[in-house]
Amino acid sequence: MNRLAVELPGLSLKNPIMPASGCFGFGKEYGNLYDLSELGAIMIKATTLKSRFGNPTPRVAETAAGMLNAIGLQNPGLDKVLAEELPRLEQYDVPIIANVAGSEVEDYVQVAEHISKARNVHALELNISCPNVKCGGIAFGTDPVLAGELTAAVKAVSSVPVYVKLSPNVADITVIAKAVEAAGADGITMINTLVGMRLDRKTGRPVIANKTGGLSGPAVKPVAIRMIYEVSRAVDIPIIGMGGVSDTGDVIDFLSAGASAVAVGTANFVNPFVCPEIIRELPAVLDELGVDHITELIGRSHAL
Amino acid sequence: MNRLAVELPGLSLKNPIMPASGCFGFGKEYGNLYDLSELGAIMIKATTLKSRFGNPTPRVAETAAGMLNAIGLQNPGLDKVLAEELPRLEQYDVPIIANVAGSEVEDYVQVAEHISKARNVHALELNISCPNVKCGGIAFGTDPVLAGELTAAVKAVSSVPVYVKLSPNVADITVIAKAVEAAGADGITMINTLVGMRLDRKTGRPVIANKTGGLSGPAVKPVAIRMIYEVSRAVDIPIIGMGGVSDTGDVIDFLSAGASAVAVGTANFVNPFVCPEIIRELPAVLDELGVDHITELIGRSHAL
Amino acid sequence: MILQEQMTIQSIREVADRIYEMVLEGNLVNEISAPGQFVHIRVNDTYEPLLRRPISIASFDRDSGRMTLLFRAEGRGTGLLAQKAPGSAVNVLGPLGNGFSPDQSEPGSTALLIGGGIGVPPLYQLSKELTARGVHCIHVLGFQSASAVFYEKEFAALGETRIVTADGTAGEQGFVTDSLRRNPVDFSAYYTCGPTPMLQAIQAAYPDKQGFLSFEQRMGCGIGACFACVCKTQDSDTRPYVKVCSDGPVFPAGVVAI
Amino acid sequence: MILQEQMTIQSIREVADRIYEMVLEGNLVNEISAPGQFVHIRVNDTYEPLLRRPISIASFDRDSGRMTLLFRAEGRGTGLLAQKAPGSAVNVLGPLGNGFSPDQSEPGSTALLIGGGIGVPPLYQLSKELTARGVHCIHVLGFQSASAVFYEKEFAALGETRIVTADGTAGEQGFVTDSLRRNPVDFSAYYTCGPTPMLQAIQAAYPDKQGFLSFEQRMGCGIGACFACVCKTQDSDTRPYVKVCSDGPVFPAGVVAI
Ligand SMILES: Cc1cc2nc3c(=O)[nH]c(=O)nc-3n(C[C@H](O)[C@H](O)[C@H](O)COP(=O)(O)OP(=O)(O)OC[C@H]3O[C@@H](n4cnc5c(N)ncnc54)[C@H](O)[C@@H]3O)c2cc1C
Ligand SMILES: Cc1cc2nc3c(=O)[nH]c(=O)nc-3n(C[C@H](O)[C@H](O)[C@H](O)COP(=O)(O)OP(=O)(O)OC[C@H]3O[C@@H](n4cnc5c(N)ncnc54)[C@H](O)[C@@H]3O)c2cc1C
Ligand SMILES: Cc1cc2nc3c(=O)[nH]c(=O)nc-3n(C[C@H](O)[C@H](O)[C@H](O)COP(=O)(O)O)c2cc1C
Ligand SMILES: Cc1cc2nc3c(=O)[nH]c(=O)nc-3n(C[C@H](O)[C@H](O)[C@H](O)COP(=O)(O)O)c2cc1C
Ligand code: FES
Ligand code: FES
Questions:
Q1: What was the ipTM of the complex prediction?
Q2: Confidence of residue D218 (pLDDT cuts 50, 70, 90)
Q3: How far, CA to CA in Å, does A216 sit from each of A21, A213, A245, C34, D159?
Q4: Closest CA of chain B from A16, distance in Å
């Protein structure tokens, strides 16, 4: 028995650990450091219909136990991702979750339709929560009606299960979660980044050229845990949790909060080997906790 | 000329530094450590009509560069605050900002009416953003209509200017800010805490008895800075900024973002002398920045 | 008076499995007024860990300006504290709280001192002061297992000392209350510090004795301002709550609702 | 191959005002392939500071397994790095990026090496390699003021070395470009590293020369995955952008749009 295996819609994960979208590119660079087949899955960088250059630099800034980014969904566009990035990832025994972004419903639909047909794409992650682009993205993620409509439109064309990535920049995240569940989402991924800003001490001006950026890293973990706890009680579809996961203990916390699998973002920049290290450490932690199978940890926080 | 003096509605501050509500009690304990007359002002602990015991313990938990609290507005109630706490503070040459909380509009109104008549209370801080009590508090802070109605009701009875304390747990904080401005608020204080959760590693259960708590400290600073930046562009009333302020550099950042004065919360627990230390360091920092008067720093981030 | 001071580490050594003894020197020692007071330690000057850690004063000596702490390297904060080198400085806030009053025991009387795990340290200074007053001290000290036992000799030098371990690898097997049930002792007042269930059991076992209990609670400020560390009281009409940091950590039996 | 290694600090010393020279030993040195590559350093194992810091390799020696870094204690991260003690370990990721190619200069030719401030370090290894190839090196090194000047002797040992300071407290007064305008030099290729305005001025000053520029950019991953460090290119049709960390930090003149 594989004590780490987790079954989710479209995804037979050998372990519940995967790099988060935007923090791992299309796997090429990390693939030079370790065997990507070790991973449970890979969430690739957001893909849009046309290639995007993204925002001006500086695009990142450090904050206390966190970082801000405003990459602005830079990516080579659907055609190149289909022609180059996804085929290169076929050498690994690892399911790909394709992060889909756009400005209009129609953009999302077109990307979803085509990318969901790629051989190694086992699920889509609908990015309705990117805070760093002017149109689209977060607008869908803060309005339950728009979020539901977009989900339904993408579900209608996707060949694989659809996960919707939620924004934490809302008053009540369960409202959005229920809306996308009702619209047919197969799962939820959360959280995307909190909108933040850092100023230059000397000039007083924003450090990031885009002014605001998305806050990620250990600083946001308490918010992520709380929201996953709330959403996992509000919906019946599974959650892939993220937001500050940096070590094996964090993975335990996210599963306990109610996530069924866990994505690692910013921590890849701090320690590029963090994902395989966590995967190797997990069995010993299960022993310590007296747990046979990792799925027993899911939702422990809800026990009365 | 006092290079640190700031004039705000109801408040002639000798410097823009004050302890944040709930992080300084009613000044008694810190008054044993240093002379409270050094402070620009004091925001006292939330006062409710009746005394409150608050939430069960544990009430605090540490997080990466932050902490969670769920005190639950414990306070001795309006009568005791008027009879004991406020008179004791009269020995100091420092304006008091009274933090007013309640469950119903009527509670707020009663507390506001009476406490605003106390000799040393120069302004009210309407707490519509406490995440740690079941009724009231945050409910008002996430609904612009309720927030406006409450503000107007309190303004109608208050003998001193009314500042409204905003919650960061919203999708668009400018909407609430504009609503309370329109309802007659004299100023805004922000941000209160972000709702978060920490789980016990062994049991998977929430560490805090109340389950969720309010996240404060350096971790939330980028969110506070961003929101102050946004609100200071959206309204014409002044802002007292807070959220992670721990040193003199942070004060510069908050003023640059658009705050006219700055409150220090969690940092008092880390260094009980942090407020007077910052006040003493500020003139040298103004020199370094080549600034004559501290008010020149306000809103620097908005420059094009 | 409460000071915030950069105290110098005179020595640090592991006295039992993950239990460290740290000797600190500074002016703060002059301000200590009673055994059972504690200090609030900032383990480094970064934001991680952010909060201070409360640690009891295990013993102190005004002449040398030194005090001893005994702590378990438990989580992140105490783990970092254990790695400090002699000669380096630690940011200490204290002395805090109200400790035990050795005056409560008459010279010639017998005091029972019951400690559990990292609740043992403050009893050491207390026993020294009681013994100096001519009070006869009996120590019953509970630990998880032999590897966790510390300061056995130090306590034995002051009076009868029973070691009790949960797994029986040292001294008697069981909890301190088991030992006291098996072999009762005669005493006039008890003083105890340890995990809450232990305090509860002891208070229940000696309803008629004068007793003093030292409590633990998660803390924010450590000085009474933040209301993090409150406990409900048994007589809630006269005094609805107490704060462990500033009203305690030591309370007479019957005050705190446990 | 890129390694993540706990490298041992052999020595650390302040060579100018807030400029530190740190010698590190480890296997990573075997992987260095060119002058101008950099490493990405995690200054401690807490979350504060969170991100790694990019620092150029100033020189290295495969035989001893050692490399030298020169960095300015600027903010929080480099400030902590400067406090490290010899014998302790630092978490280093590298070698990263593509450096300068000494092969681009023929033996016997003259190379102009222009450095500004903390852009000076990578030029040292470059000059060593060029000189070893028989290339004649002229160094023009710009600093804020006399107190910030470092490695003047080391560069002078390799070839003609001009020091230029903004305030004139050492060498010539002005910027490196002022110096080169006042006293032009004859050379076949230039190599430069420093603040972007300096790179811009140099590229503009020598439009017809072969040149290689090393760029700085705020970084996340340091290995090409996060798109934090992109720059627009001059010929955006064939290649819309480059990443400083993995495509650079060194680019031939005319590639990056500055
Ligand atoms: C009045 C008092 C006196 C104490 N005296 C001693 C002593 O002499 N020796 C000793 O080893 N321990 C003592 N403790 C317990 C000690 O404070 C905790 O073990 C320590 O705070 C744990 O910190 P950490 O960094 O190891 O753990 P972490 O898990 O990193 O701590 C996370 C947070 O929880 C708090 N916390 C965790 N456990 C406790 C606890 N048991 N009590 C209060 N807060 C806790 C921490 O202070 C911190 O804020 C005392 C506690 C109190 C309240
Ligand atoms: C390829 C490359 C090579 C470099 N080589 C050297 C060198 O050899 N010697 C040296 O002293 N400096 C070098 N730098 C600059 C050095 O990385 C920064 O001075 C350092 O990151 C500042 O960190 P801090 O902790 O001191 O400042 P902080 O203000 O705490 O830094 C905050 C954040 O901003 C980033 N940052 C700040 N300044 C810079 C900068 N100029 N470039 C990139 N990121 C920055 C930090 O990495 C960090 O993420 C190099 C930069 C790059 C990109
Ligand atoms: C540099 C960077 C780029 C990101 N790009 C994307 C993206 O393209 N699509 C997306 O859905 N999320 C993106 N994110 C958000 C992460 O996937 C993740 O939700 C968030 O960072 C929280 O996780 P962490 O704290 O582990 O980083 C990005 C985050 C970072 C730091
Ligand atoms: C222990 C604690 C108690 C608090 N109690 C109150 C309160 O009674 N009323 C209120 O408006 N805010 C309260 N706050 C919020 C603070 O005033 C402040 O808005 C917040 O903590 C952010 O600032 P900081 O990061 O500097 O702590 C409390 C915060 C803490 C940490
Ligand atoms: S810890 Fe703040 S009141 Fe006790
Ligand atoms: S720093 Fe991540 S791509 Fe260059």
A1: 0.96
A2: very high
A3: 12, 10, 10, 46, 48
A4: 17
